[in-house]
Each structure stands twice: as C-alpha cells, then as structure tokens.
Amino acid sequence: MNRIKFFITLIIFLSILMTACLPSPSNGGGKRTITVYAFSVMKESLEKEIYPAFKEKWRKEHGEEIEFTSSFAGSETVVNQIQQGVPAQIAILSIERDVTRLIQSGHVPSDWYVTAQKGIVNKTPFVILVRKGNPKGIQDFPDLAKEGVKVIHPDPVSSGGAQWSILAIYGSELLKSEKAGAKDEAKALETLKGIWKNVVSTPGSAREARTQFETGFGDALITYELEGLLMKQANAPIEVIIPKSTIFSEHPVAIVDKNVKADERPVIEAFRNYLWTDEAQKIFVKYHFRSVTNDKLNENNPEFAKIELPFTVQQFGGWDKAYPDVIEKIFRDQVQKK
Fold first, then answer.
1. Confidence check: pLDDT of 105 > 90
2. CB neighbours of 280 closer than 8 A, spacing ≥ 6?
3. Nearest-CA neighbor of 110 among 120, 121, 99, 95?
4. How far apart are CA 89 and CA 107, in angstroms?
5. What is the distance between the alpha carbons of residues 6 and 15, in angstroms, rounded to a whole number?
6. Which of 12, 58, 183, 230 is the most exposed place for a label (fewest CB within 10 A)?
7. How confident is the model at residue 115 (pLDDT cuts 50, 70, 90)?
8. pLDDT the model gives residue 11
9. What is the CATH number of domain 28-121+251-295?
10. Residue 18 pLDDT
C-alpha cells in the first residue's frame, strides 16, 4: 500500500512539474517583457511610438500586457554588451557587420533574417550639420578638411554611425571621381586624412556626438540625416548640408536566440515582424528614417533630402569587404595611425 501511495504521489508531482514547464498561454491576461538593445538614434521612434503601438496591438489580439526594457548605445558597444551577457532579446544595430559578430559568438543564428529586406528595418543618408548661417561655408565633405574647421565625429571603435561616416566620406570621393572620368583613390584618401586632422572630439555614439554638438562645441558634425531633422524640429540653430554624394546607412534587426526561451519566442518574433508593417514603417518615416518597404511612405516626409549621387555599402562589396578594406586598411592603418 505504501508503495502505491508513493507512486501516486510521484505521478502527481511529475504532473505539476510538467504543467509548470509548459509555455504560457498567449491569451491568458498575463504580462510579458521584451528586452531591446539598440543603437543610439533609435531611441525616439521606439520609445515614443513603436513600443506603445505594438503594446496596443498585442493587448487587443492576445489579451496580454507587454512591457519593454531598452538600452541604447553605439552599435559596437551594444554587441560587446550582448557578448558579455546582458539579457537582450532583440538587437537593432547600425551595421550588418555587428550581426555577423553576434553570429560568430553564437548569440544569433546564421539564418537570422526573414524578410525580403534581408533583416534591414530602416535606412537614412549621412549628412553634415553646421551652425546657423553656415559660417565656415561648408558645402560638401572636402570642405571639412579646410583649415580652422572643428569637426565632431563619433568613435569608430564604439559607433556604427562612425563607420558609416568613414564610408560616406571615402565612397563619395570615389563615386564623384568615377563619374568625372576615373576613380581616384588617392584623392579619396587625402580627403579622409584632411577631415580626420580636423576632428576635435570622438564621442562614443552618434547620439553622444549630437549632444556634444548641441552644446555649442565644434563647427560641424557628420551624422545621420534624421539627427539633423530632429534638431531642426526642435528649433536648434543648425543647418543640414547635403553632400553631393553620400551613403545610405541600413540598419538590421535580429533576435538574440541565446536569450529567448521557447515560451517567449512567439511575442519576440511578432515584435520583430511588426517592424516591417506599414504601421511601424510610417512611424519610422515620421521620425525621419527612410522606409525600406514602401517608397511611397517616404514621399510623406517633405524634409527628406534628394541625394544627387547616393550609394550603399554594396559599392564596397558589402560589409564583409568594407570593414577590412576601408575601415581597417585605409582608415585605421593609413589615416588614424598617422
């Protein structure tokens, strides 16, 4: 009899244990938390409108409350934090190379993207911000190499935006010279060297660089177009200078699989997929990112500049080539070290 009681008790215990391990129901009226780590300039669009819109959508469809926990920093810093163990479930990064780093460390699977946009959620061109009235007469990247121009430029070690900026400067000179008859790598290198000699501060992220520029330090800042438009919207005394040729930065989102439990995956995937919906893309356009799914949405933002000679990282063969060939061999070894 005691043996029978023991087995009955064991069966009940195992049943309770198995029930506790089952995934939570999607419509049980509970609460979930999504942890997002993102590069710095994503802050406004996510916290002010993307998160609230998704919360409402999930509440209506599943009867659950969603809470978001966020952290914002330079893209390279975000990756370092994730590799060191922070509990990020979603990573929104400035450059695709940073996703590659997370794949290499086992945090993100190699088949990480699920959309026709190959994981890219929004984009924006790189521009130059100057003081009201443009006292230094800046019209294009080479003007930043003039004597007496003080340039603020984020640090390429911690900031994806800084790496985009280097590609924008170098690539614009290559493309302009190519259109004029022959690609001039020597001129592109000299332009990059001249500008870097005028860099007086290298903050850790694009947002930190903008904040420093807002305090009145420096004559010019190379940054995402959306940063200039947000500053103009706030009536900051600045002007946005559109280079003749510049790069469009493209920003990927990836699920950090290593930090996602089985019962969390449905809501994490739903949030990631939501970022490509028209609703979310309209919000990005409102906050001056360009849509990657619908060019008609971009027409709704009259502030967007027309770029005469635009290009993407594909001009360099993608990030697998752009990083070693330009960021390392040209910028690090021939510009920064000298």
1. yes
2. 50, 53, 54, 274
3. 99
4. 10
5. 14
6. 12
7. confident
8. 40
9. 3.40.190.10
10. 38
Residue range 232-238: average pLDDT? 95
- Which residue from 219, 218, 237 is spatially nearest to 228, judged by alpha carbons? 237
Residue partners of 154: CB distance under 8 A and separation at least 6: 74, 161, 162, 165, 202, 203, 204, 205, 206, 208, 209, 223
Residues 155, 202: contact at Cβ < 8 Å? yes
Across 71-88, average pLDDT: 97
Tokens of 99: 């996703």
The per-residue pLDDT for range 31-68, each reduced to its tens digit, is: 899 999 999 999 999 999 999 999 999 999 999 999 99
What DSSP character marks residue 257?
G
Q: How far apart are CA 228 and CA 222, in angstroms?
A: 10
- Give CA–CA dist 292/252, Å, rounded: 11
**CA–CA separation, 299 and 217 (whole Å):** 34
**Predicted confidence (pLDDT) per residue in 236-292, tens digit:** 999 999 999 999 999 999 999 999 999 999 999 999 999 999 999 999 999 999 999
Please list the residue range(s) of the chain that carry CATH number 3.40.190.10.
28-121+251-295, 124-249+307-336
Question: Among candidates 251, 165, 173, which has minimal Cα distance to 205?
Answer: 165
- d(CA 301, CA 290) in angstroms, rounded, equals 9
* Predicted pLDDT at 29: 54
